[in-house]
């Protein structure tokens, strides 16, 4: 009894956060689900229950299917590229050299301004006109003609991913850097006495000990990648056609612009399930990998 | 002891929650109290024009009615404004005065959010031709005193450089002019295809509406389809502008501002725009430009893109209805019209008000706005403006990059319409 009361006493302190979480996360989630079963248009409170019709329509909508495929591509590509770039970057920034602190700040900086702002600036760099910054540089250096960086279906996707990778690599490198600094120096000393080369030290010591950092970094990259909105929005506005539309774009497009709130809610619910499953799988796999590696 | 501390925590929590509710109630009664007191009223307004543009007319009003002050809010048009207002309306926190635009009029009027203004005396100042966009079933829900018309801005020096001495009088001549510019190494026309393109709208005006002004109504009544009206428009656009390389898919990546700057810098000979760009162009030294309508297939036929301006509406649920109506009445007065013009520089189209029009837009104003040779699909379409516009943009871009054919593009539009009808 005493133990139970003590437990309860601790639990009581969770009530405020539970209230907030319920109000701002659980309730909207349930509300989205109930609205997804209606033909609510976002303006009028007179709407009818239409069952699963929104869900049936969802998978026949080219914008939604294109949104899902680009979002998944974006999430996977940014995750892989950022991880491949951030770990070597962290290893370099972990070295002792004169401009170390300045460089850390420089690489971290792009993650401070909002993605919207970054994408607007990159919009000028990628401008498809002959006077666009990148096109001018290419012409001056190589004499090549203007490239449609943001209006060719393939190039637009690549450009969007490049900007996103550029923006967050530094931030993730700092996560890895923090974990790197917690690896005791003795390990490296022991390894070098045993005759391990620098590469072998990285391969068999650093990488396995960075496993917890990878779990965190990759989880953040995947979830943020799936939720991406502002970079493609400001850079290409989802074009050309539906090529760089993300799921979040489609939700706003169908829900707000087209006043099909019920359908947009159905997309949100499906999107929530996709993120939930991917997040759960990824976290479990990575944790198991962590245990195996250590 | 433990029991006491548990009780204490619970009591604290409950009192905090109740306290929050209580203070809410207090502020609500406080508001009502001030409303019944005629001396101090704060009118809230969600404006479409920014604060510096609205300042003269707001100040003029406040000088006349010193007991009314403003809680001024602004959201940039179009999409941001629409979604902000939508959120406010849904959560019952909308401002006393807000704007109705072509893009949100159905939802606002059908939802009963705006007060019916039809019978108020100040509505006489509003031009009859401005009313349909802001009306439903003969009742008008917002007041506008302006309109806009846009056309194709052209750089006179670049035209001269390419040896073009006369403006094109027919569509074929227009295409010829573009090709001539292209031969001279000048980019003839920029169009970023991020909207239902104005070339499409004006072509539709010249090719379809000039024959049958009611065509859009017929589409929405189910007598005609989008394919009936728009297939030829898309075919002409693709054949004469895309296949000839006058418009290229790489233009899709341009922003509106980049297009304006490129024109101001003399890097492109033509682009579509409206009154909002005049200031910027006039500030550019040595830029000599004109504005023309898009010529049709018959000599002398020209269409422009334009519409009535967005209208001021009164929130039907506001307790400050009387003051809100006072503001609309002031807007319609001679003084209000003048100050609104001074602040915004918009083209005024109010009954009995001598409008000043920028010389470059004079022809567009007379031929387009006054004679009614203007078309903006989102104004004429009675339903699903945003959904259809989005589909037009996607279809246009897909045709431009060569992903789909014209027929597929139009089918997608008809499918979208059907889908919306069945939602």
Give me some keywords for this one.
heterodimer; A: 294 residues; mainly alpha; MetI-like fold; 14 helices; flat; B: 423 residues; alpha+beta; D-Maltodextrin-Binding Protein, domain 2; 2 domains; six-stranded mixed beta sheet; two-stranded parallel ribbon; 14 strands; Bact_solute-bd_prot1 (chain B); signal (chain B); Sugar ABC transporter substrate-binding protein (chain B); SBP (chain B)
Structural category of chain A is: mainly alpha
| Major sheet of chain A | none
Low-confidence stretches of chain B: 11-36
Stated plainly, the CATH topology of chain A is called MetI-like fold
Strand content of chain A: under 5%
Can you put this structure into words, describing what you see?
The complex is a heterodimer of chains A (294) and B (423). Chain A is flat and about 75 Å long. The model of chain A has no long low-confidence stretch (mean pLDDT 88). Chain A contains 14 helices and no strands. Chain A is mainly alpha-helical and 294 residues long. In chain A, 73% of the residues lie in helices and 0% in strands. Chain B is of the alpha+beta class and 423 residues long. About 6% of the residues of chain B have low confidence. Chain B is built from 17 helices and 14 strands. The radius of gyration of chain B is 25 Å and the shape is globular. Helix content of chain B is 48%, strand content 14%.
Question: How are the elements arranged and paired?
Answer:
The complex is a heterodimer of chains A (294) and B (423).
Chain A: H1 2-12, H2 15-35, H3 53-58, H4 62-93, H5 100-108, H6 115-125, H7 133-142, H8 153-181, H9 185-193, H10 198-209, H11 211-226, H12 230-235, H13 247-257, H14 261-293
Helix pairs in contact in A: 2-14, 4-8, 4-11, 4-13, 5-8, 8-11, 11-14, 13-14
Chain B: H1 2-36, E1 41-47, H2 51-64, E2 68-74, H3 79-90, E3 97-100, H4 105-110, E4 135-136, E5 139-140, E6 146-155, H5 156-161, H6 171-183, E7 187-190, H7 198-209, H8 215-220, H9 226-242, H10 256-264, E8 268-273, H11 278-282, E9 289-292, E10 294-295, E11 302-303, E12 305-308, E13 311-314, H12 321-332, H13 334-344, E14 347-348, H14 362-370, H15 377-380, H16 385-400, H17 406-421
Parallel strand pairs in B: 1-2, 7-8
Antiparallel strand pairs in B: 3-13, 4-5, 6-8, 6-9, 6-12, 6-14, 10-11
């Amino acid at each position: 009894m005493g133990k139970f009361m003590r437990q309860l006493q601790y639990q009581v302190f969770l009530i405020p956060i539970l209230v907030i979480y319920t109000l701002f996360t659980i309730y909207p989630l349930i509300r989205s689900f109930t609205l997804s079963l209606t033909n609510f248009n976002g303006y009028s409170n007179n709407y009818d229950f239409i069952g699963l019709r929104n869900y049936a329509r969802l998978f026949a909508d080219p914008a939604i299917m294109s949104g899902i495929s680009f979002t998944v591509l974006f999430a996977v590509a940014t995750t892989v590229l950022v991880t491949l770039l951030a770990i070597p970057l962290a290893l370099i920034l972990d070295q002792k050299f004169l401009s170390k602190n300045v460089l850390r700040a420089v690489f971290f900086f792009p993650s401070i301004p909002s993605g919207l702002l970054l994408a607007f600036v990159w919009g000028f760099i990628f401008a498809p006109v002959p006077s666009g910054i990148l096109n001018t540089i290419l012409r001056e250096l190589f004499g090549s003609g203007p490239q449609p960086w943001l209006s060719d279906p393939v190039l637009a996707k690549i450009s969007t991913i490049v900007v996103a990778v550029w923006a967050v690599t530094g931030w993730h490198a700092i996560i890895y850097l923090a974990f790197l600094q917690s690896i005791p120096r003795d390990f490296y000393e022991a390894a070098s006495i045993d005759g391990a080369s620098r590469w072998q030290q990285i391969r068999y010591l650093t990488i396995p000990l960075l496993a917890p950092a990878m779990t965190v970094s990759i989880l953040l990259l995947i979830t943020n990648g799936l939720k991406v909105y502002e970079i493609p929005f400001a850079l290409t506005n989802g074009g050309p056609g539906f090529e760089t539309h993300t799921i979040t774009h489609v939700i706003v497009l169908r829900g707000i612009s087209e006043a099909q709130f019920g359908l947009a809610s159905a997309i949100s619910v499906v999107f929530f399930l996709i993120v939930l499953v991917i997040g759960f799988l990824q976290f479990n796999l990575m944790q198991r990998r962590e245990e195996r590696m250590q | 002891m433990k029991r006491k501390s548990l009780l204490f925590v619970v009591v604290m929590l409950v009192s905090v929650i109740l306290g929050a509710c209580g203070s809410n109630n207090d502020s609500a009664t406080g508001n009502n109290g001030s409303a019944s007191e005629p001396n101090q009223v704060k009118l809230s307004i969600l404006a479409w024009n920014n604060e510096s543009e609205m300042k003269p007319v707001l100040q003029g009003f406040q000088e006349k009615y010193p007991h009314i002050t403003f809680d001024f809010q602004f959201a940039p048009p179009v999409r941001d404004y629409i979604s902000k207002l939508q959120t406010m309306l849904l959560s019952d926190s909308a401002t006393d005065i807000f704007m109705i635009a072509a893009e949100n009029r159905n939802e606002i009027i059908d939802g009963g959010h705006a007060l019916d203004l039809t019978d108020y005396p100040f509505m006489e100042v509003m031009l009859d031709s401005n009313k349909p966009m802001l009306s439903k079933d003969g009742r008008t829900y917002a007041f506008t005193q302006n309109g806009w018309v846009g056309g194709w801005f052209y750089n006179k020096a670049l035209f001269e450089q390419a040896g073009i001495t006369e403006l094109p009088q027919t569509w074929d001549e227009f295409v010829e002019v573009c090709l001539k510019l292209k031969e001279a190494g000048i980019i003839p026309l920029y169009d970023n295809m991020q909207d239902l393109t104005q070339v499409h709208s004006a072509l539709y005006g010249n090719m379809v509406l000039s024959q049958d002004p009611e065509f859009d109504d017929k589409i929405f009544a189910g007598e005609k389809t989008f394919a009936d009206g728009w297939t030829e428009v898309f075919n002409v656009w693709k054949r004469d502008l895309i296949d000839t390389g006058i418009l290229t898919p790489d233009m899709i990546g341009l922003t509106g501002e980049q297009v304006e700057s490129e024109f101001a810098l003399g890097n492109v000979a033509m682009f579509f725009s409206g009154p909002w760009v005049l200031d910027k162009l006039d500030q550019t030294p040595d830029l000599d430009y004109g504005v023309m309508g898009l010529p049709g297939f018959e000599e002398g036929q020209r269409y422009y893109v334009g519409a009535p301006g967005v209208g001021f509406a009164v929130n039907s649920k506001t307790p400050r209805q009387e003051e809100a109506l006072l503001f609309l009445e002031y807007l319609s007065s001679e003084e209000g019209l003048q100050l609104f013009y001074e602040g915004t520089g918009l083209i005024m189209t109010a009954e009995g008000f001598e409008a000043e029009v920028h010389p470059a837009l004079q022809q567009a104003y007379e031929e387009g706005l006054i004679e009614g040779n203007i078309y903006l699909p989102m104004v004429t379409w009675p339903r699903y403006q945003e959904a259809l516009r989005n589909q037009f943009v996607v279809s246009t871009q897909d045709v431009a990059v060569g992903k789909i054919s014209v027929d597929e593009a139009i089918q997608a539009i008809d499918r979208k319409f059907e889908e919306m009808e069945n939602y």
